[in-house]
């Protein structure tokens, strides 16, 4: 067996399990080895009952106090006991384990470990693991058990066993980092790192393993960027454009004036497109800063110069939204160019017709998803390519779009709040423009962080907003374990909310498992205000623009990264109405409160990202990832800024250039930037 062997060859994996693994993107033994745990279960020292916190998993050591009860409910037989230590008494429940009545003796010492929840005002531990005699806990103390991303039918234990098998039977030889560099930055060997990331003996081993793998991830990424940059460096502008009066006329007809920041960025773009070299520019601007209109101006200028312009968005919903708003604007201001929409869910016939109009040049502006880079699409004269919400794409995809033309200009839009120093490393191949100002008419969003007791008040508030003609979003908590469960969750929630809101309010829902046409339909209805409250997973997080929506309520806000919450919040406050953001949290942990307070007091994405990092500190590796930012497998550009810096140094070193894998860096695997 080697890294390329199908997972089926691993002992214990049959056809059924193989299918489940494939569903999770694991095809080969190598994929499995790189299927990293999403977190770890750490058996920490027991804590006193008085210090237990709601929502955490903890161990408690004490004596069984009084008699053990078995509830008469046949459907869900519950065993309950009281555990007492010097600081207090804790109620503990087990489900469907009636035999425990005979093993738990009043007065005996015991350690229980499980989740602490709040039930009718008191803390209760649910279905804990039992350690008796208490010495048994010693064996597990401080060990870290991997917790893998799962799907229905695939258990954590199955994944653990498979990974263990693979680690045992694959002879690993791969070393992608030169010895001298490993020594300089204290990086462990590849084999050790793989073992350490799956089955760390302790935290130290985990930290070393992770550091090495994150370093490697960053290094490969940086090398790929560098290579691209070298290929492209100073390419002569083959799509030279002139300043067109039509674009200025269009601009003067818009119902608003550009902000100074927008004007400045538009000027930079224009100058690039006229200049001697091909443009490669990143436009960074916080959510709602008005990046789209700048992109539209660039597309229009390209079209006026006789070139095609294409804009790629990460989701169909977003692509369609851009398409519609451009069509509306062009119609309203009498712009004669044809705009084309190209997405994966279009019918074959529609798509063929679109291809044809693109190939003949009948369509000058093309908006779409990944469909834009399909092999069958031939552009006639592609002079400008734009990627919106860039952090969702791989380097490869941006490159693929550019290859559809003959060295077209490249414009990249991103709302990712990255400090300039980091941006220069990450987007090393791009020039940087920043829109650091929001349109003047915006009222700052009013925020509140509340506990679940406030839910009814929040519903009443939303109902009132709807009565005033506004619309609302409700974000359901993520269900990490499976998409199917997540979908169920969203549907249940929206049914409940619909009943609660009464017949005058239409509640719709959106989740990742829906078919594209269904999603479009829902978004369309929401945009038209036929749906007033949209219950959704985070699929609405990127880019969606419905200025009439004024309330964003996020359930289980503690489960999201701050940057992601900031993106979600960016869906409201996009028009002239006062908007509100309600962060609902069930957790009473102080940490959570502190984190959410940052959002509560600032609407500035850059500031939030910085504070979040400060609060968690670079050492906190188990914190919530800044998910949605850069989709590195393990690395996080904020948390691991130090490692990123090291990798950047290493990427420019001589040793790397001489190392055989350089140039072979697997660029297809890079899904970042
Ligand atoms: P983002 O930067 O998040 O992509 P959008 O480009 O979607 O933001 O813009 C958000 C909203 O602000 C849109 O409805 C857009 O029409 C509007 N907008 C853009 N620029 C201005 C401006 N200068 N003045 C007023 N409204 C603007
Ligand atoms: Mg946008």
Automatic annotation (TrEMBL):
Role noted for this protein: Plays a critical role in recombination and DNA repair. Helps process Holliday junction intermediates to mature products by catalyzing branch migration. Has replication fork regression activity, unwinds stalled or blocked replication forks to make a HJ that can be resolved. Has a DNA unwinding activity characteristic of a DNA helicase with 3'-5' polarity.
GO MF term list: DNA helicase activity; hydrolase activity
Sequence intervals crossing the membrane: none
Catalyses which reaction(s): Couples ATP hydrolysis with the unwinding of duplex DNA by translocating in the 3'-5' direction; ATP + H2O = ADP + phosphate + H(+)
Keyword Hydrolase applies: yes
Highest taxon of the lineage: Bacteria
Domain Helicase ATP-binding stretches: 272-435
Gene3D superfamilies linked: 5' to 3' exonuclease, C-terminal subdomain, Nucleic acid-binding proteins, P-loop containing nucleotide triphosphate hydrolases
Domain Helicase C-terminal, residue spans: 457-614
Entry keyword annotation includes Transport: no
Keywords associated with the record: ATP-binding, DNA damage, DNA recombination, DNA repair, DNA-binding, Helicase, Hydrolase, Isomerase, Nucleotide-binding
EC assignment: 5.6.2.4
The protein's name in its UniProt record: ATP-dependent DNA helicase RecG
SMART domains referenced in this protein's UniProt entry, alphabetically: DEXDc, HELICc
Family: Belongs to the helicase family. RecG subfamily.
